């Protein structure tokens, strides 16, 4: 006999249960009246037997456990039911046998697991209803918990929660609780839940003007409709269940940011559209852009402390295999510690010692790029990884890295890794052919003198010797909104800009503190263990100006001439000056930039709704505000350093201490030689610019080797992105 059989058949006389007397009474046949029919008699007895089973709390508990956690083995069920000692084995066997005999529980002999039957579920539901009805009849109020248990309502628990979670004074907590309790007893409901009680508490707090306490006690979560909508629309989720879970988590943390972290005025400014906060779900957790020397990380080895224990530890890497393998791991890990971009420097010097095995280097590096491209997303696009290469150093190594990148782009439909080519000390003509080929394959290319990210934002660190610099650049200001509300008064417009920047920068300083604290506690292990960036004072607070041209020329009413552009420059100077003064006050480095953000289209939409079909908005050529400078490749041959768009871009770039995004739009019909010519010509006119070309890609098979429109020439799929 097995253990279960022994326990089920053991002598129960020594383990008389508290319910045994009641069970024995129920077994007495009271249906001796000969007038009763056989079927009726049998049915009546069966019902009484079932009710006798329900009379035991232990047996009800067994049904509840099987209903929520089953099927279970004998041992699992016994343990979960609380019969853990050997002495209680007989008692448990007795209760389980009762349930089996009345067909409330069934045993799957092949799997040796117990399950609740449909009759058992009906009995359990009936028991619940009887319990709830008895509560109502008793005149007491009970609360149903998340664990399917019912507790008697206790107002003292509300008081404790108000004091503990909301930091309310005891006297106020008692007053709020008394009002909540009075409301509860007026409803005469069958039961309450913790969520309902919390909502009632928050409602009373708001009615009494205690919004600050209400925010601390608010329940963070998502409506059922939103959850169902996320599950129903999986087109926006491209990294599986991880993406679905992450999106849900981001919504909760974004709500937490707006209700409990940000100052109320800043949160209101974001919600109203005066400013925009990018990636609010991770705003207080990770920085936006990181500039890091990857050679130093690899030379020293990666110390992750007690985090990511399932990731292989990286010691100092020397051999080519070790370096490329470690590089892949570093890219994946660093991608988790920034929401927008990681700029990797030092690759050229990293591979200098391996110049004699360039074919192997290209092969290994291609594999490293490919295997590092499966990291999480913090927004609709992946965290960008940019490989920064300084021309004029080791030409052979640079060409090998570029070739490896080209191989990676060829096999990756939409690459998350890009190139930033610094031509300050070298000639762009040395690599322009390869860059053109890469661009036509859908690669990401940025030409930039100095340390600049692919979105045009510069490394604003005041300490140029640092191997690491951090940019916090998630706040954008809606300049057209300020212009609309300035009644065409340019002075008042700049004053409003200054007033909005101060709380925005204060919130950015708060963000820096939050990220620093979480990093030291291990949330970002590479930053925490390997860089100690806070101690190096390498963090910059960056404010992004959106819609400057629309503000000055469309709304304030200045003409796009010398005088009008002077006003535009004056606005930038005001922002830079306010940033410098506020930064000195906060003890932080502050810079001003003009780059792309999803806030641009949001601003335009909100302003269109608020101000209606305003003539100044109607004159816009697109449904988003300006975010920098756009140059079309078809016009590049006619441009000179004195051409307005070129001279103005260079002027604005010098005024902005945080960077200006200039994009060179490459026409889809251009061939490699034509693209090469455009790159070389633009590099003579503009110090930093981003190459942009729309490359058709089949979303089914990833084909992108030749131009196509309607359907994929390879798999014939109509899904083209």
Question: What does the model show?
Answer:
The chain is of the alpha/beta class and 721 residues long. It folds into four domains: 3-129, Arc Repressor Mutant, subunit A (Orthogonal Bundle); 140-217, no CATH class; 262-286 and 473-625, no CATH class; 289-337 and 341-448, no CATH class. It is 50% helix and 12% strand. The protein has 29 helices and 17 strands. Strand 3 and strand 4 form a beta hairpin. The radius of gyration is 34 Å and the shape is globular.
Shape call: globular
Q: Major β-sheet, in short?
A: 12 strands, mixed
Uncertain runs: 1-37
Helix content: 40-55%
Structural class: alpha/beta
**Could you give the count of β-strands?**
17
Mean pLDDT: 82
Number of domains: 4
